[in-house]
Design brief:
The complex is a heterodimer of chains A (298) and B (235).
Chain A (H helix, E strand, L loop, with lengths): L1 E8 L8 H10 L8 E7 L8 E7 L6 H12 L2 E6 L2 E6 L3 H11 L3 E7 L2 E7 L2 H8 L8 E7 L14 E2 L4 E9 L2 H10 L9 H14 L4 H11 L2 E9 L2 E6 L8 E4 L3 E5 L15 E3 L7 E4 L2
Antiparallel strand pairs in A: 1-8, 1-14, 2-7, 2-8, 3-5, 3-6, 4-5, 9-10, 10-11, 11-12, 12-16, 13-14, 13-15
Helix pairs in contact in A: 5-6, 6-7
Chain B lengths: L4 E4 L2 E5 L5 H8 L8 E5 L16 E5 L14 E4 L15 E4 L15 E4 L12 E7 L13 E6 L15 E4 L10 E4 L3 H14 L9 E5 L15
Parallel strand pairs in B: 2-3, 3-4, 4-5, 5-6, 6-7, 7-8, 8-9, 9-10
Antiparallel strand pairs in B: 1-2, 10-12, 11-12
The chains are: A alpha+beta (298), B mainly beta (235).
Chain lengths: 298, 235
């Protein structure tokens, strides 16, 4: 079991309050996922050629400033926004090169996401603890994807926590489980995808990213996924300007959507919506199985 | 019951912003001989609201309910003003459960008796393994509804999804709209006078106005009742 939350703010004046609206949604899914939780926040994109890398290091007292000096010496300027175990590094250099350098020089540092818009946080603990640790309620942005995890098929570790990312400005969270992540992984590894965890969700994330970057529309990519994924799932996906939701054809896992003129909220259960402004007058519906729902940032 | 407010004789209110679901359910499982109505404010999608009630009391849930609302209900009338999560009125024995909005998957699963009314749509597997209750759905039902339904009746005023009535036993389904596909061993049958009477009575009980002439009957062909080696897995 896991909990999924998503929020896209249509009303621009509310964007500074994205995190404030989201934290009660995430905490509302505590019973579905008390092991670990995470959140991908999409902000206005940084100007090209800049990229943001969300990175994590669990070592107590890790010296981020020393790393910033070393990176700046290599590529010129590197901006570091340090937040507990996380740091958002903004660079003008090729992000692939920065990743490579990090892997060699700082093997304890994990890259959680890369892109112009995405900031990604995840950690082990109750949703309320993780939200407090990183000050989720202070975050602003256009939309977000959040997850609370109850591990079923792989260990409770940072690597196995959601959201998962692949490529740039793309993330996915999952409620459900897949029976064939191994065969998906072998297929994708032959195509050059590199895996970082044992979690079945990573296979789904990389599979869909591979289809999308191969030219499929989201609908076509998911048509392939319905054939190739053996298992059950509700997926919530985030891109620079979209949230997309899909449930497996048997609708094994729940999902609910609430929409007002100000926002679109997505969650596993209504409990997450209870604190949202104007929820009493929201249009609330249950997404149908095997249908792709997508909402864009205006 | 420690903190529930007695607003008037026979009427008790619970506010789930201040009280727990356990407070509510323990009260409902106690002596209700003096209680006529229980009002539940701010349910906010909580699970297991008013489960296992065993008395002729009226419970009004003023908002949305989470999983398993009114499960195992006996004798009580439970009204959910909003939507209901998965498994509403599952294993109901008797009484009346009504959902004002939509109900998620597995509504009325295994229900033995009583009446479940869903004014909006019902999700997948509505009335799965139905054992004698009646279900009236004002809107559509999702796929695999009435799977292995053994007894009871289901009235669907909208459309039905795939695999309707798969492996039906003796439950009967009435559908007003389109059926995307019938499940194995489910078949359309002519509406007889008794079917018109049943649909009229169930719609009246639900307070929904349609003509019984608009409904079709779906029941078991009973071909799965006995093992047939010659069928070669064709059903």
């Amino acid at each position: 079991m896991c909990g999924i939350v998503g929020l896209l703010l249509k009303e621009k004046s509310l964007r500074p309050r994205l995190g404030e609206f989201m934290v009660p949604m995430l905490i509302g899914m505590t019973e579905r996922g008390p092991d670990s939780s995470g959140m991908a926040v999409f902000t206005d994109p940084v100007a090209l050629p800049n990229r943001k890398l969300s990175v994590y290091c669990g070592q107590p007292g890790f010296d981020w400033r020393q790393m910033q000096e070393a990176l700046s010496a290599l590529i010129g300027n590197a901006d570091f926004e340090i937040n507990e175990n996380h740091c958002i590094i903004t660079v003008g250099a090729d992000p692939a090169m920065v990743r490579e350098w990090l892997a060699q020089e700082y093997p304890a540092v994990r890259v959680l996401s890369v892109g112009r818009s995405i900031d990604l946080y995840k950690d082990i603990g109750l949703p309320s603890e993780v939200a407090d640790r990183y000050g989720f309620s202070r975050f602003s942005g256009t939309h977000l994807v959040g997850h609370t995890r109850m591990a079923t098929e792989s260990a409770v570790t940072l690597e196995n926590a959601h959201p998962y990312t692949a490529g740039e400005d793309w993330c996915l969270v999952h409620n459900g489980s897949l029976a064939n992540p191994g065969s998906l992984r072998r297929k994708l590894e032959k195509l050059g995808e590199r895996f970082e965890s044992d979690c079945d969700t990573e296979a789904a994330c990389r599979y869909l990213h591979w289809r999308l970057t191969s030219g499929d529309s989201l609908e076509v990519a998911l048509e392939h996924a319905f054939r190739d994924f053996d298992g059950f799932f509700t997926f919530l996906m985030g891109t620079r300007d979209k949230l997309a939701l899909v449930r497996d054809p048997f609708a094994c896992k729940p999902a609910i959507v609430a929409e007002t003129d100000e926002y679109v909220a997505i969650a596993s259960e209504f409990r997450s919506f209870a604190g949202l402004p104007g929820i009493k007058h929201a249009a609330v519906f249950e997404p149908k199985p095997a249908e792709v729902y997508a909402w864009s940032v205006q | 019951m420690v903190s529930a407010m007695k607003e008037a004789v026979g009427r008790v209110a619970f506010d789930l912003k201040r009280q727990s679901v356990r407070d509510l359910n323990q009260f409902l499982h106690g002596d209700l001989s003096e209680v006529r109505e229980v009002v539940v404010e701010n349910p906010d999608g909580a699970h297991s609201l008013a489960v296992g009630v065993n008395a002729p009391v009226h419970v009004e849930i003023c908002g949305h309910a989470g999983y398993y609302a009114a499960g195992m209900n006996k004798e009580a009338t439970v009204q959910v003003r909003g939507n209901a999560g998965p498994g509403v009125a599952e294993n109901m024995m008797s009484g009346h459960v009504e959902v004002g909005g939509f109900a998620s998957g597995g509504a009325g699963a295994s229900a033995h008796g009583g009446l479940l009314v869903i004014r909006g749509d019902a999700g997948l597997r509505c009335g799965i393994s139905l054992k004698g209750a009646d279900i009236v759905v004002g809107g559509d039902v999702g796929s695999f509804s009435a799977f292995m339904a053994q007894a009871g009746r289901m009235v669907v005023c909208g459309d039905a999804g795939d695999g309707l009535g798969d492996s039906l036993y003796e439950a009967v389904i009435y559908v007003r709209g389109k059926v995307r596909s019938l499940g194995a061993d489910a078949r359309l049958e002519p509406m007889k006078d008794e079917d018109h009477g049943a649909v009229r009575a169930l719609l009246a009980a639900a307070g929904i106005a349609h003509s019984s002439a608009e409904f079709k009957r779906i029941a078991s062909a009973r071909a799965l009742y006995h093992w047939n080696a010659d069928a070669n897995q064709t059903y």
